[in-house]
Amino acid sequence: MITEIARDVIEEIAREELPTFSAVSRAYFADPQRAMSGRGSRQAPLGFGSGMVELILTPIVLAATAKAVECLAETILKRAPGEGTNAALRRIFRVGHRSPGPPVPDDAAQSTPSGAVAVELRQEDIERLRHVVEATLHDCGTAPESSRLIADAIIGRCRTPRPTS
Q1: Contact indicator for 42, 36 with CB cutoff of 8 Å
Q2: Which range of residues forms the domain containing residue 29?
């Protein structure tokens, strides 16, 4: 679920990273601390380029998305402990309703039925989510402008239905 959401965010804000998304995502989940630390140093997330290092957003987006999913899982458990958390999160993020095109290897194996209704998020849920995501991005050393862009994209997944095929 985290990978699919993060892929959609990267598709929206850093489309040039899509060809490397699967590899970077696997590296992130194999060792999140190393993926966030860069090449052996603990200074910056994965980077590339000659001379000036360009920042790769994928591991940062994965970290922020993981925190967002964790935050929303806590919210759902508090509000409706009897409801299946995974199913509710899938409804919130509309996971499983990918647009037409070739399947992505990182996509979740399960899908949400096409008639699923989104779980309503209250304004305080959105505000808490934004705080958690922005705090995570700040901890990753993300610039404020980039933090807002990434947070808006993740939160947008909560509020706007995904295109269906």
Answers
A1: no
A2: 2-100+109-159
Predicted structure pTM score: 0.72
Residue 39 lies in a domain: yes
Listed in sequence order, the residues at least 6 apart from 16 whose beta carbon sits closer than 8 Å to its beta carbon are: none
> What pLDDT is attached to residue 52?
38
Nearest CA to 7 out of 50, 54, 61, 52 is that of 61
Establish if 165 belongs to a structural domain: no
Count of CB atoms within 10 A of residue 94's CB? 21
127 assigned to some structural domain:
yes
Inform me whether the pLDDT recorded for 46 exceeds 70: no
* Residue 164 resides in a domain: no
Residues linked to residue 48 through DSSP beta bridges, in sequence order: 54
The per-residue pLDDT for 113 is 39
- b or e along 1-40 (b: 16 or more beta carbons within 10 Å of the residue's beta carbon)? bbbbbbbbbbebebeebeeebeebbebbeeeeeebbbbee
Q: Are 25 and 3 in contact (CB under 8 A)?
A: yes
